Amino acid sequence: MEFSGTNEPAVPAATVVVLRDTADGVEALMLRRSSKVAFGGMWVFPGGRVDAGDRDPDRPDDELAAARRAAVREAAEEAGIGLDGAALAVWSHWTPPPEAPRRYTTWFFVAPASAETVEIDGQEIHEHAWWRPPDALARQAAGEVELAPPTWVTLWYLGQLGSVADAVAAARARTPERYVTRICFDGDRVAALWGGDAAYDDGDLQRPGGRHRLWMTAGGWQFEVSGAPVS
User: Fold this and answer.
1) CATH class of the domain comprising 11-180
2) Which of 67, 166, 172, 225 is the most exposed place for a label (fewest CB within 10 A)?
3) What are the structural domain ranges in the chain?
């Protein structure tokens, strides 16, 4: 994995994890982006940058409200589905490392799926699928799909929940976690670190203590939280 960022200011963005209940468990709507746009070829949740029109002229500095409107707008534009902005529950906020080639500071929301049929735009989005979070991670591990670290981590956490109602309730019951990513290297291994990891401040990946990192290697990705590795 290579990083060749320009250290330019990050662009505000939003994404929404659209969820539905099935007999086999919760499924998330995943979209495959065109190879010609940012994060080309990756499987993502509906979302994109916050546009000027998403901001309330009376409250132009309300970042979260603008992100909520952007998430609803992007879901309609990319997947043809209408979402109730009030039904979106804030899940997390992600800031990429300075090395990232494209930098978006992104609010993640979760929301129940509407009754509408998904209709992708055929421009930025070329394919869609409904996957259980563990199945999406299994596809990534098998090399069938490509996921960005924030998508991977979000899917892992959602895989621990039993229903859409559980996911929305979990989001509403906690303060959204803010992930400010730091990238560190250990030989040919790459780790994304977040607050709470013992190595976060100085990059010493062998330092004893808490763990909050995602190892990204050719042999597979592994998430470590508080010293307990999970795949």
Assistant:
1) alpha beta
2) 172
3) 11-180, 182-231
